[in-house]
Design goal:
Elements (H helix, E strand, L loop, with lengths): L1 H25 L2 H10 L7 E4 H6 L8 E9 L9 E7 L1 H7 L3 E2 L1 H6 L7 E3 L2
Parallel strand pairs: 1-2, 2-3, 2-5, 3-4
Amino acid sequence: MAVKKDLMNLEKKQTLDNLYSVYKSSKKEIYKKVASMLESSRRNMISVNLSKLEKLNNVIEGSIVIVPGKILGVGNLEKKITVYAYSFSKSAKEKLAKNAKTFDDFTKDKIDFKKCVIIK
C-alpha cells in the first residue's frame, strides 16, 4: 500500500517539476498557475464531471480546458473541446477519446493560450 502511494507522489512530483521548468523557460504564467493549483493536497484535489464542462458558458467550441485535477465521466460532453487534466477516470477517457490529454502533452503541445480556460 505504501509503495503505491509513493509512486503516485513521485508521478505528481515529476509533473510539477516539469510544469515549473517549462514556466521558467517560457515565462508563461499559465504553467505556474496550473502547477500551484495541482500542488494542493489529495483531499483538496479538484474533480470535474463532464456534465459540468457541458453546462459552463465560458467553455465554447474549440476552446482548451485545463483541469488541475481529475476528470470524472458523469454526463456527456457534446462540445468539441480539448481537455488537459492530471488524470481521467476510465469512463471519461472513453467519452473524450482523443481529446483527453495529460499535462505531459500540455507542456509539449503548441497551444493558443487565448483559448485556454482553467476550471476549478
